[in-house]
Amino acid sequence: MTTQPAPTKPAAPPKAMRAFAMLGLGRTGFVQKPLPVAGPNDAIVKTTHALVCTSDSHTVHGAIGPRELLTLGHEAVGIVYAVGSEVRRFKPGDRVVVGAITPDWGSEEAQNGFPSQSSGALGGWKYANIKDGVFAEYFHVNEADANMALIPPDVASEQAVYCADMLSTGFMAAEHGEIPIGGTVAIFAQGPVGLMATAGARLRGAGRIFAVESEPRRADLAREFGAHLVVDFSKEDPVARIIAETSGIGVDTAIEALGTEKSFQQCVEVTKPGGTISNVGYHGSDDYVAIPRVAWGVGMADKTIRTGLCPGGSLRLERLLRVLQQRQLDPTKMTMHTFGFEDMNKAFEIMDRKLDGVLKPLIVF
Amino acid sequence: MTTQPAPTKPAAPPKAMRAFAMLGLGRTGFVQKPLPVAGPNDAIVKTTHALVCTSDSHTVHGAIGPRELLTLGHEAVGIVYAVGSEVRRFKPGDRVVVGAITPDWGSEEAQNGFPSQSSGALGGWKYANIKDGVFAEYFHVNEADANMALIPPDVASEQAVYCADMLSTGFMAAEHGEIPIGGTVAIFAQGPVGLMATAGARLRGAGRIFAVESEPRRADLAREFGAHLVVDFSKEDPVARIIAETSGIGVDTAIEALGTEKSFQQCVEVTKPGGTISNVGYHGSDDYVAIPRVAWGVGMADKTIRTGLCPGGSLRLERLLRVLQQRQLDPTKMTMHTFGFEDMNKAFEIMDRKLDGVLKPLIVF
Amino acid sequence: MTTQPAPTKPAAPPKAMRAFAMLGLGRTGFVQKPLPVAGPNDAIVKTTHALVCTSDSHTVHGAIGPRELLTLGHEAVGIVYAVGSEVRRFKPGDRVVVGAITPDWGSEEAQNGFPSQSSGALGGWKYANIKDGVFAEYFHVNEADANMALIPPDVASEQAVYCADMLSTGFMAAEHGEIPIGGTVAIFAQGPVGLMATAGARLRGAGRIFAVESEPRRADLAREFGAHLVVDFSKEDPVARIIAETSGIGVDTAIEALGTEKSFQQCVEVTKPGGTISNVGYHGSDDYVAIPRVAWGVGMADKTIRTGLCPGGSLRLERLLRVLQQRQLDPTKMTMHTFGFEDMNKAFEIMDRKLDGVLKPLIVF
Amino acid sequence: MTTQPAPTKPAAPPKAMRAFAMLGLGRTGFVQKPLPVAGPNDAIVKTTHALVCTSDSHTVHGAIGPRELLTLGHEAVGIVYAVGSEVRRFKPGDRVVVGAITPDWGSEEAQNGFPSQSSGALGGWKYANIKDGVFAEYFHVNEADANMALIPPDVASEQAVYCADMLSTGFMAAEHGEIPIGGTVAIFAQGPVGLMATAGARLRGAGRIFAVESEPRRADLAREFGAHLVVDFSKEDPVARIIAETSGIGVDTAIEALGTEKSFQQCVEVTKPGGTISNVGYHGSDDYVAIPRVAWGVGMADKTIRTGLCPGGSLRLERLLRVLQQRQLDPTKMTMHTFGFEDMNKAFEIMDRKLDGVLKPLIVF
Predict the structure, then answer these.
(1) Is the domain of A154 the same as that of A25?
(2) Which of these, C340, D88, B278, C179, lies nearest to A205 by C-alpha position?
(3) What predicted TM-score, i.e. pTM, was given to this entire model?
């Protein structure tokens, strides 16, 4: 929004940069790439911090099909390096966070209220999918005015980088759940998105939050982020327990944050008639995801199944940054590992193999 | 709402009545039953017209488990015969239509906005489920003030009886679909509920309505009730056709009005990202109803799956009666067969075996 | 929900009781009244704790017209003393909180989603309006199953009594405001309802909460309940300040919790296009409440004006009790004065004249 | 969506064009202007048909402040003449309709769901407000891909031009009203927007539509577009009549389509508790628009006041065109006068002075 005169650009701009890419199925490594170029509505950002996501790992293993020399990564903050002729709200030197999802805001899907689906299903997901991602010294931002936000001085970049995907996706799960103040919520799995769904449920004023998780460190974080009861599915049947805890009625909202058919079915089972199942897990295998017929009320029990993809946009990012400014939660509790960009291989491996209880490795450029 | 002086009650009230009941699995017939008695909030209605529903047939074949001597039927109009001490809005002699679903309006599910689920999943469905139905000379109405409506003089009973279930359920399918003015809708199957879903889509201002149906008489009725294009699934793939007709984008809303897994899956497939699948079909078999994973956007394409059970209540009934008063549609086009109550066995058989292109047999008492 | 056998009633039930009533315009005092009697759906509750509300004072001064010998009060908890024949969920001896608003759940307004308006505008408001209130040794509860809730053992009656009106009304103000996570909210006036609106905004995950208040003790409580900035309207223009704090854009939601035309207008002025003005203040004088035309965008700026009356019902009460069980806020911070029922005159006077910084006098029976 | 190779542009493009402009307060006339130039996201359209709007007249009389040499008009169709480098969906030669409101789709207001308010209150209204309008041989379209739509071959330009503003605004009034199927609606004033609100109410399935109008020709059109009863406010009190027609209850939805304080107040008065007042009239004078306090339920009767500005966007336009394709209504019934562009002065005068029962003068270029 500030429009100070743009500082002069560096005299001799770099011509090439390092990027961490998927080389082919199951293979990753560093490559040299030319700097991306900004069209009239775009920006180029110099990366300073990024987070590794489980979906980067899925991609490398073929979840979205074959890709070659595709730069990985979609969660990043950085410094604006260049902007196109039509960009009004940003200038080189600005410290910004960029949405993992960067919609085409004029698309009919966005006009219809679903920007993440712009120009086709999941079409707002561009980084490391249909264009190069953010694990590079520089990256490209389409419709820059609408897809990135200034980071306020009182928010550290290490915090802000969580807005790109984790807060936005996790909170969406809670928002889609239409949780009433004092309502009951069950959240299946407490990985980074599940933890942020738990935090989101607390932010919406849920009265009782059940988190389903067996790994002790994640269970502890779930409690810190707002879970009132953590159910260890390895020790008891989470459906039976949650139904019992709600006097046989079931919860207002169940959130699926894992992406397995079983946890999806458990969500349908613990949700009361008139309640909502909010799916945020990525269902990556098999041809079908089966709804349990009787628990679904034979298709007539007013149990609504919502889904969604991480909301993008500057407005969303600014709202999330505000939550961080007010210290309403501290997502860096999930940063238990930090690497330099040069150690990207190691960071990726730890995430890929889920070593050392990893949640979100932070990459510092 | 009219408050004429109540007519005097008959001097010697009948002690017993005829009812058409499920005698056991697969068996139906007439039985003698005592007249039902009204509690403080209830009414007793003398039946004048009723409609047979496919779900009556399902019930007899065991869909909701074993029942003995349960009176069948849930769609009826009649004359108020007696009312309880707390009933304020009705008096003996009133001509009324009663909802197929008669919720407990003080239940927490009703407070939560889902009266049809009152006191448990599908709990508003009482007739021929947890209490005797309407195929009898008299029937019982719980919470009478809230669960029935006066029929205006300019609406025939033969019309009004369609409000009990068919209009309410079919229109709900369209309402749940969140159809925008000018939006696109696909409706799978054009039985009575599907036809009323088609009429409902037209009433919501849909811009293009695709009805999927192969039976010629139903296809004709679909066109009369508002379908712009009828797709004969026996001659072409309805998914491919509807996707093509929408320029590859898919519809805003798909309505499942059959209750098969296949048509449910086709609904998911023809719905665009950000669209709604409105299920109104009763899914009566198998343990699961499987969602096609990729068409569902791997759980992230903002395709919402809604379900529901026929809305009840006097307000709903009055609104439906108003639609009939304005001649916005004529549901009696679906009445192709009429029987006296004494021919109930024949009426039931024709429905059970779907003979003679039957849609809704009308029973006159 | 528990249905143990009802304990035997006291051998010789009292025939009369003390009640604190409006004797006529501007006059209050104790009177003897017969015990209320429960109809089939009702209950009689023996009062243990009650709160005085500013609206009791308004009533005495004529706000709702002349009343004679009307028992005052609408916020109370107590012990069930008797239940009608149709009551299923409660029995004598149960410790309960009763909603200030006790809707007719079968009314068409309730069917339409607005139970507080049942049987006409504000028709759910019965206590000290169209029937005797709760400042008596016993009081009557219509549709008892739906209009009261068991108090869990871990919630004190002194806490629970705040659910009857203050939490329900204040939180409603926030809910009507459609506050997004991280959104901005301005709340005009921090009396008890305004303070609970502030707490409600925090419970919905607001990112920045502006409370407008000049009285220091209320300002302090506003901060405790979640305000990020308290604007003292006696020292600066709250509209200018809030607009400046939101970079000239205005807030997502403004809440009017005072009931003056000026604060209502300020709400319209600080709300951004597309935002919501949630009115919860009782506008008690003059023929009109004027909207500022230009700030309202000449009737085209998508600024929505919502209003409402305290939501009632057992489900609402149970959700509010859950918030107290989780210690998400402590409303007893507003209880700065406690009186025995015999000192009701004094309690009423302190509230009527707003002495000693009073917020909510608690009456112990 | 078609992407044929762009035809070659005319060899010698025109350098100047005629435009019909506001010359100063109260003065209009033809001027010569240079052709507008398309930026990267824009298009230039050669006008073929336009409609005059009452708001053009308001503008000339100073409603939006002083303007000099501003081209008037905001409702037009035409042929694409040139497109910018980033435009993907259109090419020269396409026959298109352009929204009267042309939002900035990446703005935060659009991201928030209110594109018409983009970049500030009413900021999507650019034509004849903050940039030259469409009463010229050529006009400029910002964000062309998102703000215009191809006209299907089976829709005449004379029909399509009504989508730019009249259908979009009038239908919005009905949509904002949240009309249930079978609900009751009162629409105050049957000018072009009011008539299209009436048509919109019918398209949403209203059960009873009351149109308030005294001018006989407009009353007739109201009936043709769907009104069930036209109340002549010059002969009876419309509030009393509508309340009586709804058994004393009031309507679900009242639509203000005139822009006077009196009709706005009548809307509040005829709306039932829990109902919606949908304001679409432009309130052009005085500092305040006063809500009647008691009819508003002293700020607590759940009567919601919605407002809005004509929705723009290609998706909206395509949906409206679909309604025309299906012949669901014929807006050209409102075209009772047609002029060539050279007779613009006459067309403007007839509209300005409301001569000859004019509704919408059509301008043919």
Answers:
(1) yes
(2) C179
(3) 0.96
